[in-house]
Amino acid sequence: MKRGSFWSWLWVAIGGLYFFLPLLSTFDFSLRAKKGILTFVAYENIFKDPQFWSTIRFSLVIALFTVFFSILLVVPTVYWIRLRLPQLRMLVEFISMLSYVIPAIVLVFGLIRVFSGSPFYLTNSYFGTYVLLVAAYVVLTLPFSFRAIDTGMSAIDVRSLTEAAQSLGAGWGTILFRVIFPNLKVAILSSVFLTLATVIGEYTMASFIIGLKSFGPYMSLVGQNKTYESSSITIISFLMTWALMMVIQLFNRTKANNGTHSGGR
Amino acid sequence: MAFIELSNLSKVYGTTTVVENVNLSAEKGEFISFLGPSGCGKTTTLRMVAGFELPNTGNIVLDGTDITNLSPRDRNIGMVFQSYALFPNMTIGQNIGFGLQTRKLSKTEIKEKVAEMLALVHLESHIDKYPYQLSGGQQQRIALARALAINPAVLLLDEPLSALDAKIRVELRLEIRRIQQTMGITTIYVTHDQEEAMLLSDRVMVMSQGHVEQIGSPSMIYNHPATEFVAQFVGQLNLLPVSAVDLDAATCTVAEQTVHFETAAGREPGESPRLAIRPEELHIGLPATDEEVNVLRGEIASVLFLGAIVRLRVRVNDVFITADIFNERDLTFPRTGDEIVLNFSKHACWLI
Prior knowledge:
The complex is a heterodimer of chains A (about 260) and B (about 350).
Chain A: H1 3-30, H2 41-48, H3 50-83, H4 89-101, H5 104-115, H6 126-140, H7 142-154, H8 158-167, H9 172-183, H10 185-200, H11 204-209, H12 215-225, H13 227-258
Chain B: E1 4-13, E2 16-26, E3 31-35, H1 42-50, E4 57-62, E5 65-66, E6 77-80, H2 92-102, H3 107-120, H4 136-149, E7 154-158, H5 166-183, E8 186-191, H6 194-200, E9 203-208, E10 211-216, H7 218-223, H8 228-233, E11 238-241, E12 243-246, E13 251-254, E14 257-260, E15 274-277, E16 283-284, E17 293-305, E18 309-316, E19 319-326, E20 339-345, E21 349-351
Parallel strand pairs in B: 3-8, 3-9, 6-7, 7-8
Antiparallel strand pairs in B: 1-2, 1-4, 4-5, 9-10, 11-15, 12-13, 13-14, 15-21, 16-20, 17-18, 17-20, 18-19
Helix pairs in contact in B: 2-3, 2-4, 3-4
């Protein structure tokens, strides 16, 4: 083994230990619900809990709505900025990053304060709170969705493709749905999975706007009350996130192999 | 009335005028090139014809209809881009059929037209491939086929060969000319490559700094440049300092030797005139006795071998002159420092 290679591997190993040791310890702890033996009983308890399934179902539905509205908002916005208003790109990027800078707790109190009164009254009904939650998540996930779509858009020659389609007689709808969206498939999927991964386990906004109906607050409740189950649910949520990440990688690899989205040049 | 007419077309961005008062009339089936250096306004003018830019003043009339404010999709104009702009998510067949689909043609008609267009560009076997599976030259042929499939009134090409390597470029420009003549389609071609413009065009519009310098046939542009810019931009040109100019006798002194030049309307010299002569108009050796032939004596400063042409740099009393001679297999190359006599007709030179 070369000297440089040894040091590289050493650093990888140290990084790996730093990341995996706590996880392994949590996993080990989650298996010790019964004294003296290793058992999956904590996982069984979680999977048998109807609240686990109802909260995860609820969060998944909310996440899907978030994804839908997020794409509907971000793709045309990024497209228009790249096509007609490139000077606004920095500003919009800055705005999209604000939810990183403003703590979720501040954001959620602001939202509740504004949308619980006249003229919105969104917190007066369940439907209203769902709308508020989805809208809040669209803002919260903007940094991911904007970046993913913007990067995807930069890989294709948006202006030339648009102009080519226009000169061939296409209207804006045809251009967006037949030319732009299909060429952003990978970017949109990346954005979808990042949004899903963020929204499903989100705690702060969910607990203040909707409460125990969603998965984040449920995880927190389990963590407070059930010692071993809290570790098992941590592992479960990690596995779910990894599964989503692997799907992104898979799509990216498929893209790299067939190169169908390498742009019009 | 002309088939396409640009009248007083101007475009201003902020405080910068990028196109100023462009006028052009083109007949049906004509091939016109916009030629000029980067930033001269040729692409902006083309984009105004395509409808991607709106002019600040002036109008564009196509076949008797004012299309100045019409959206690009309603102009029936085919466009070929430098970057090909093929839709990466569609096969070659789908790309060519795209414009026909937007025109709501039947599937059978689309299929027939796509096959016809692929045959025109000799790429029949590639119908089910994706753009990334084709070379740059093939992609540009497909882009051309796609633009022609909709039977456009005018075909616009925006530096379509710039992204290709030299060999493909030479092949493809002949292909473009062949297809244009086969279809008899009115074509506007933007390029900064003078050779491309000369070879392809019926007429060339030379542009500089947003305005038109000259419009004319390639030979007219080359042999009778209207301005100093055209003379210098199109082809090689010697511009020699002169003194003792006598316009009545049409003589001047170049490097202490008397030279006769041609005077012609539209070729009046400027305030500090120079003698203009193309390198290929200079010949080596003494002429057969003829009063109208000028003679300059000097020595070879350098010899450049360019294949078909040998380019000589000759110093005549501290004035450098470039002379091109044709290469021949048994040509004995002059050497640096050799004495040399150059002769040229008075009709070959003029004062700028």
